[in-house]
Amino acid sequence: MLKTICYISDSCQEESLHALKNLYSKAKKNNSKHNITGVLIYYNKNFLQVLEGDKISVDATFKRISLDTRHRNVFKVININIPQRIFEDYNFGFTIVNNSKELNELYEYLEWLRKADNTLANKVVNMVENFIAQKKESV
């Protein structure tokens, strides 16, 4: 059975580009090993991540993340079984939103997802858009 968890969290520190790239490399390697797909977004000292895969792997990965001292205020937004993967073709992507060009690229991907006309995909798209909008307002 496939499952997805989407969470948001605060970073305990301002992450450097180098630290974020290392974090992403480790996450991608671990997630590939456990056949987890999804996306990781970092914006303004906050993370939003979507994990997809078999229930045991997704739950174990989320548990490790929630115990990671680099995160605080980990909040699970979506925790449901799914009939198919949304991010299967995205191969666990990573986005650092630093400027309007990167934000536009993310929106292009989200728009592609929205056109898939998948209810869960649309929920994730709306959540990512709200996440970014809220972070913009707090800057």
From TrEMBL:
Residues of the BLUF domain: 2-93
Cited Pfam families: BLUF
Superkingdom, taxonomy of origin: Bacteria
Classification via Gene3D superfamilies: 3.30.70.100
PROSITE patterns given in the database record: BLUF
Residue ranges the record marks as coiled coil: none
SMART domains: BLUF (SM01034)
Protein's name in the database: BLUF domain-containing protein
Organism: Flavivirga jejuensis
